[in-house]
């Protein structure tokens, strides 16, 4: 009755591209901060701010993914309940409980 959705998995190339992109962005930011002509405390503050931003972004991405997975689970449970009701439903059954055309 219900179709099980195909679980999508990322390819190795997509995973590699994401990791490489993250590494390049972090390296470029680190180089930019340390090449900045400012006091050491300013560079340290910017480095800490970047690290905090990265950890916050990872946490937000995890929370969004978890919420999406919970929504999919709830949807699958609701679909299973609906499938069960439809399978058990007999449209030819009289309100009294005996199927039409059969004697009690």
Describe the structure.
The chain has 104 residues and is mostly helical. Helices cover 70% and strands 0% of the residues. It is built from 2 helices and no strands. It has helices spanning 12-35, 40-88. α1 packs antiparallel against α2. The protein is elongated and about 85 Å long.
Question: In short, what is this structure?
Answer:
This protein is an all-alpha fold and about 100 residues long. Helices cover about 70% and strands about 0% of the residues. The protein has helices at about 10-35, 40-90.
State mean pLDDT (0 to 100 scale).
Answer: 83
Spans of at least 5 consecutive residues with low confidence: none
The geometry reads as elongated
* Sheet with most strands: none
Find the structural class using helix and strand composition: mainly alpha
Percentage of β-strand residues? under 5%
Query: Would you list the SSEs in sequence order as H and E?
Result: HH
The total of helices stands at 2
Distance between the termini: 31 Å
User: How many strands in all?
Assistant: 0
In helices, the fraction of residues equals: over 70%
Cα-based radius of gyration, to the nearest Å: 28 Å
């Amino acid at each position: 009755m219900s179709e099980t959705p195909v679980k999508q998995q990322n390819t190795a190339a997509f995973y590699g591209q994401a990791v490489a992109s993250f590494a390049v962005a972090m390296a470029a930011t680190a180089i930019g901060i340390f090449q900045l002509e400012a006091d050491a405390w300013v560079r340290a503050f910017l480095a800490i701010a970047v690290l905090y931003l990265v950890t916050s972004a990872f946490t937000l991405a995890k929370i969004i993914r978890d919420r999406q997975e919970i929504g999919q689970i709830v949807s699958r449970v609701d679909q299973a309940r609906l499938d069960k009701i439809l399978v058990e439903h007999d449209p030819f059954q009289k309100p009294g409980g005996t199927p039409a055309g059969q004697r009690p």
